[in-house]
């Protein structure tokens, strides 16, 4: 498109950037032409190894066989902590900013190392061994980071569950990966509200007989229920534990963590990431995408319950010896100026957040932004969903005063790290485009028949080869990994996203092409929400679709058919919302419930979601042909009674 805006790299930014345009071009070309040579060099540069690897990459995508740096030995916690002690032991590793602006704390690399070693010893005394799974259900506090690193130190595999998920969700995740230990806190705080983390764990554990240990961080000091023998206070146990804990040498392909994510079908999948390739990939991308320099203060506003928190609050930044800010609160508490005040308070240089937050703050007007200085800011980032050009422009002009480049970073839980993004010293920006592939990433666009589309085109986004940070499997179900990602286009990894590539080779992600929706940057499967709704005895059938939502990106629209004899009432609606909150969490609660006497189905009984999406979007002109439906009058009825 000739009318689109282009923002060139600011000259002063390029002058001090690690990589400039020519560097990107040369390194990208090399990363494809000499993949193994390129990655061997990066793995040596970004990661310290106890023993060298035998092979750089073994890859058979069709068979789901992916290995990077196999045979190499390393420890992720050692890389994130120990190796920094000599040179930056007294440097701040984590800046903690509490939900309440009166609370903030700096944690040095030495202090974090001490906490991690003690916690690792506590885990050991509770019987945790290499390969065991540990569930972490924590607020955004330094102890959450310590918990992840303590697992990594002894080779335990962590499964972090976002604090917004319900007891049912915790339970199913604990059971799926057979976690025997849970690390949690008495309560979390978000926007002044207490989140009953320990009570949620207690409830979840009623269905998890194998969990023998719950470590509880005393955070708010609230009264909580206690099970002697099983429960232990985090601080008390650490105080009496040894601070000496050797880092377990792990194979590059040993699992590092499991993170559950929603797909188009079934229950959430345990995405499995491993050790050496993952760390190499997140360290490299953190340094280059955010142009991180020693001494910078870096803030990613995500929660460690999501992959963004894993890769770009914890592992990438700490591997690089960065100062990473951990924020417990929400963007609008106590006021919509909070983000900008925190930036001034801690002199943040690099700020990485989600479009949904930007849109919500944009709505609050320029005032809360303009009341702050933000002079420390050098770079802005965006992640989680497509950023609409209006929000991009506002972020650039008002927040960044036109001087800070924006890196719109496209990636997924499955990809481990950022795959398509500008490099801020190298790439001219187009608002709304994630721009160009990073090193070693070879994207392609496919049509429905499996043909690759050349040049400027729109299609389904695939990746033609693996990269070190790629997921290796679905925990406990390797076949599901193959079926979900590697079957649609044999030999390629299918992302589930639609995408356009323009004449300049820039990529524009258009959103999911499957039944996954993205609500405020939270990924949800429509099938999961439907399963929750039909658990209610009054519900016969439910179909859930996404629709455009001004702040959240997508909203949740549920069509619900009731059992014969049940009447739709406001009270029943509330019961259905409560059911979804109980089964999944508040983030999955439908924005709209439309009572549907019937759902549009083909003669073979398949629900025509395309039609439901059009109704939810209020795009009635594009509903199209309904004559193939078993009962076309169903559509008229739904259109007449839109929610
Ligand atoms: C899905 C992955 C990656 C961390 C957060 C989300 C969408 C993500 C972008 C972006 C357009 C984006 C995609 C992707 N997405 N980043 N910059 N532009 N879309 O991780 O929960 O695994 O979701 O988020 O649809 O497939 P996730």
How does this structure look, described?
A hairpin with a 2-residue loop joins strand 27 and strand 28. The protein contains 20 helices and 31 strands. Helix 4 packs across helix 6, helix 7 crosses helix 8 and helix 13 crosses helix 15. The structure holds 5'-O-[(S)-butoxy(hydroxy)phosphoryl]adenosine. 5'-O-[(S)-butoxy(hydroxy)phosphoryl]adenosine binds next to helix 11, strand 20, strand 25 and strand 26.
- CATH fold name of the largest domain, please? Rossmann fold
Cα gyration radius (Å): 24 Å
How much of the sequence lies in strands comes to: 15-25%
Bound molecules: 5'-O-[(S)-butoxy(hydroxy)phosphoryl]adenosine
Low-confidence stretches: none
What do we call the CATH homologous superfamily of the largest domain? ANL, N-terminal domain
Portion in helices: 25-40%
- Biggest sheet character: 8 strands, mixed
**Taking strands numbered 1, 2, ... along the chain, how are they ordered across the largest sheet?**
12-11-8-6-7-14-15-24
What form results from the Cα inertia axes? globular
Task: Return the average pLDDT rounded to an integer.
Answer: 97
Question: How many helical elements?
Answer: 20
State the total count of DSSP E strands.
31
CATH architecture of the largest domain: 3-Layer(aba) Sandwich
**Count of separate structural domains:** 2
CATH class categorisation of the largest domain = Alpha Beta
Class based on secondary structure composition and strand pairing: alpha/beta
N-to-C span = 36 Å
């Amino acid at each position: 498109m000739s009318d689109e805006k282009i923002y060139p790299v600011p000259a002063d930014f390029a002058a001090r950037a690690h990589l400039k345009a020519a560097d990107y071009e040369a390194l990208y070309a090399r990363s494809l032409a000499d993949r193994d040579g390129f990655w061997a060099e990066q793995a040596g540069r970004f990661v310290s190894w106890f023993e060298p690897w035998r092979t750089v990459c073994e890859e058979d995508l069709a068979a789901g066989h992916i290995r990077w740096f196999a045979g190499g030995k390393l420890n992720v916690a050692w890389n994130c902590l120990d190796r920094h002690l000599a040179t930056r032991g007294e440097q701040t590793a984590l800046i903690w900013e509490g939900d309440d602006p009166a609370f903030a704390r700096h944690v040095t690399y030495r202090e974090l190392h001490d906490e991690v070693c003690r916690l690792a010893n506590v885990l050991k005394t509770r019987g945790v061994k290499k390969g065991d799974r540990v569930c972490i259900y924590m607020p955004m506090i330094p102890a959450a980071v310590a918990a992840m690193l303590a697992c990594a130190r002894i080779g335990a595999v962590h499964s972090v569950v976002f604090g917004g998920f319900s007891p049912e969700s915790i339970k199913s995740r604990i059971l799926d990966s057979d976690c025997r230990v849970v690390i949690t806190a008495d309560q979390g705080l978000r926007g002044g509200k207490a989140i009953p983390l320990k009570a949620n764990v207690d409830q979840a554990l009623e269905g998890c007989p194998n969990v023998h240990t719950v470590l509880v961080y005393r955070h708010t000091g609230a009264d909580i229920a206690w099970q002697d023998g099983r429960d232990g206070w985090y601080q008390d146990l650490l105080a009496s534990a040894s601070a000496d804990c050797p880092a377990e040498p792990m194979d590059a392909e040993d699992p590092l963590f499991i993170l559950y994510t929603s797909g188009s079908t079934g229950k959430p999948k345990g995405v499995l990431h491993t050790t050496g390739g993952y760390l190499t990939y997140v360290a490299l991308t953190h340094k280059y995408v955010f142009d991180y320099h020693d001494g910078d203060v870096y803030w990613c506003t995500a929660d460690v319950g999501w992959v963004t928190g894993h890769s770009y609050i914890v592992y990438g930044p700490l591997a690089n010896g960065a100062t990473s800010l951990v924020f417990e609160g929400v963007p609008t508490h106590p006021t919509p100026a909070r983000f900008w005040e925190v930036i001034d308070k801690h002199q943040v240089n690099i700020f990485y957040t989600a479009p949904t937050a930007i849109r919500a703050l944009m709505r609050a007007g320029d005032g809360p932004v303009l009341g702050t200085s933000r002079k420390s800011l050098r770079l802005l980032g965006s992640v989680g969903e497509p950023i609409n050009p209006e929000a991009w422009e506002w972020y650039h002009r008002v927040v960044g005063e036109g001087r800070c480049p924006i890196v719109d970073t496209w990636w997924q839980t499955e990809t481990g790290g950022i795959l398509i993004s500008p490099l801020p010293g190298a790439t001219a920006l187009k608002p709304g485009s994630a721009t160009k592939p990073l090193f070693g990433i070879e994207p392609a666009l496919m049509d429905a028949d499996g043909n690759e589309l050349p040049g400027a085109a729109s299609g389904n986004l695939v990746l033609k080869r693996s990269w070190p940070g790629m997921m290796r499997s679905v925990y406990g179900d390797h076949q599901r990994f193959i079926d979900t990602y590697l079957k649609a286009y044999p030999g390629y990894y299918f992302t589930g996203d639609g995408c356009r590539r323009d004449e300049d080779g820039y990529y524009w992600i258009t959103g999911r092409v499957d039944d996954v929706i993205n609500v405020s940057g939270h990924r949800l499967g429509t099938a999961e929400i439907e399963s929750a709704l039909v658990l209610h005895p009054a519900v016969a059938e439910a179909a859930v679709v996404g629709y455009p939502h001004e702040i959240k990106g997508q909203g949740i629209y549920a069509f619900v058919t009731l059992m014969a004899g049940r009447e739709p009432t406001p009270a029943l609606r509330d019961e259905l919302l409560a059911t979804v909150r109980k089964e999944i969490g508040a983030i999955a609660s439908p924005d709209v419930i439309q009572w549907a006497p019937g759902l549009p189905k083909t003669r073979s009984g398949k629900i025509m979601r395309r039609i439901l999406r059009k109704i939810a979007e209020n795009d009635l002109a594009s509903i199209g042909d309904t004559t193939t439906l078993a009962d076309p009058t169903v559509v008229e009825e739904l259109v007449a009674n839109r929610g």
